[in-house]
């Protein structure tokens, strides 16, 4: 398995991986009209993929204001520490403290971040709706 910067050639494989995650976890809660656009927000600085045999197993993005976005690992690749490796790759590349937001519904993600030393610094209600149909409760974290 290799973690490397994402390229435009990864588009279809990234969208396929995201579809697997969305089917398993409802992340994102609603399937975007433009999944590649969702994976490439306007403020995206860089993105990385975890690849094995040409298949995208994981993805993470970093915005210009040092926020981790669009982190996911496909269901088949979970339990191998891949999300932690993706986070570590971004931290190394960025060379500065990072932040991220996670829905309170993402209990596995919250556990991962806290195991990796991320610190919760607050919570707020989001402007998007969670799986229960209410404004999501989002926890805010900073990197160790």
In CATH, the homologous superfamily goes by the name Gcn5-related N-acetyltransferase (GNAT)
Shape: globular
Q: Report the radius of gyration as a whole number of Å.
A: 14 Å
CATH topology descriptor: Aminopeptidase
The second-level CATH architecture is 3-Layer(aba) Sandwich
InterPro entries: Acyl_CoA_acyltransferase, Bact_Acetyltransf, GNAT_dom
Keywords: Acyltransferase, Transferase
Pfam families: Acetyltransf_10
Domain N-acetyltransferase: 1-144
What is the fold's blueprint, element by element?
Elements: E1 2-5, H1 11-25, H2 35-39, E2 44-52, E3 55-63, E4 67-73, H3 82-94, E5 99-103, H4 107-115, E6 119-129, E7 135-142
Parallel strand pairs: 4-5
Antiparallel strand pairs: 1-2, 2-3, 3-4, 5-7, 6-7
Describe this structure in words.
Keywords: Acyltransferase, Transferase. GO terms for molecular function: acyltransferase activity. Residues 1-144 form the N-acetyltransferase domain. It holds the Pfam family Acetyltransf_10. The protein has a 7-stranded mixed beta sheet. It has a single domain (2-142), classed as Gcn5-related N-acetyltransferase (GNAT) (Aminopeptidase), CATH 3.40.630.30. 29% of the residues lie in helices and 37% in strands. It is built from 4 helices and 7 strands. It has 144 residues and is an alpha+beta fold.
Task: Name a few traits of the molecule.
single chain, 144 residues, alpha+beta, 4 helices, 37% strand, transferase, GNAT family N-acetyltransferase
Brief synopsis:
With 144 residues, the protein is an alpha+beta fold. 29% of the residues lie in helices and 37% in strands.
């Amino acid at each position: 398995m290799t973690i490397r910067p994402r390229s435009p050639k990864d588009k279809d494989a990234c969208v396929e991986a995201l579809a697997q995650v969305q089917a398993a976890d409802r992340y994102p809660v609603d399937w975007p009209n433009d999944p590649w656009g969702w994976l490439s927000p306007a403020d995206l600085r860089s993105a990385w993929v975890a690849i094995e045999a040409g298949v995208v197993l994981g993805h993470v993005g970093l915005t210009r204001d040092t926020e981790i976005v669009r982190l996911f690992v496909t269901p088949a690749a979970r339990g191998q520490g891949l999300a932690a490796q993706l986070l570590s790759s971004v931290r190394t590349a960025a060379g500065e403290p990072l932040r991220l937001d996670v829905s309170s519904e993402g209990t596995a993600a919250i556990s991962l971040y806290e195991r990796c030393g991320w610190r919760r610094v607050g919570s707020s209600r989001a402007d998007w709706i969670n799986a229960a149909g209410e404004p999501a409760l989002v926890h805010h974290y900073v990197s160790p």
